[in-house]
Amino acid sequence: MADLQRTVDELAARLGRPLLLEDRVQRVVAYSEQSGVMDDIRRDSILRRHTSPEVRQWLRATGVHEAAAPLRTPGAPHLGLLPRVCVPVRHADGLLGFLWFIDAEPAMSDGHVAEAAAAAPAIALALFHESLATGLASHRELEAVTGLLLGERDAATQLIEAGAFPQAQPVTVQVARPCAAEPDETLRLGLEQGLLTLRRRLGGHHPLHLVRFDHAVLLTAGPPVSPDELHAAMPVPVVVGIGRSRPVLAEAAESYREARHAAEVTARVPGLGRTAEWAKLGVYRMLTHLPDQELHPGLEGLLADAQYLPLLETLETYLDLAGSAVATSRVLRLHRTSLYYRLQRVEKLARTDLKDGGERLALHLSLKMARLSGRYSPRDSHNSS
């Protein structure tokens, strides 16, 4: 509730006008400092925490429950009601509440109405999150999940004792990272909305979530939910990383670390597809921890010049296939003589010997590290492992 109150106070300060937030049955949720003109209805609503039946009936007749955009409601002198601006608060087409502004002395400008409407989605997410948090207020759940992913074991105890997660089930963490969009507040709100909608459908998995600046985190009891569901819930294309399940919630930070690394690798290596499990990343599990400057010195010149890309693609395919010329020729649809010519050029340009096992290993690892750093991007990779 503290987050909602802060949002209401900040919006009121920006508009220079007091406001009141109600839920969908017109119970008062939060309100700003009530300076300026105030009628008896506003005063009674704050004191009693709800609106009288007569006023609710009058306002319902103006169409506020059906409205999808802000509307101005007329005054009702017989009820002691001044004109108002009502901004409906909706999530996924469902009505969650109302923002109310007294529209008098002076009337609210169209610009301020538009600014209030722009703030409604964030308030809707906070209200929706509040309704999903079981036993914990939404801001306390957010704090607990944040602590959990930082490795604070007390956070797991808090979530379990509040009934937000079962004590006897393992936990799996998935991370969704936008593919191309630049992180901003609009993207963050979109990721939040996607995860909240998904949580509503995943009740049996006891889901928890957190949205960071550039990625979204989903925690579920038991095995991971279908990545297709996570992809479908996101407002923009994402890559998804999946950490290994851990036996207890207190170890969720380890699954989160793996999921985040898997998402980063998937973003850098398009050949892996849109989803990657940490347990199936192969050599990339190790390479994510190594500095990308430590490449085979003979590859530097080849990586710096686009004309050598076909040679690098041939070399990587050859090394991926354990140095089998037969298999490489078949995969690349390349005559054996042409293959040998390319490999000999690589040896000369990179000052290496492909008959040396240590050299082959260094070259192979260097190509994978160059993928991760973005210095090497094959045009049509047959194999990304």
TrEMBL record:
InterPro entries: CdaR-like_regulators (IPR051448), CdaR_GGDEF (IPR041522), PucR_C-HTH_dom (IPR025736), PucR_C-HTH_sf (IPR042070). Residues 165-265 form the CdaR GGDEF-like domain. Residues 311-368 form the PucR C-terminal helix-turn-helix domain. Coiled coil: none annotated. Gene3D superfamilies: PucR C-terminal helix-turn-helix domain. It comes from the Bacteria. Belongs to the CdaR family. This is Helix-turn-helix domain-containing protein. It comes from Nonomuraea rosea. The lineage of its organism: Bacteria, Bacillati, Actinomycetota, Actinomycetes, Streptosporangiales.
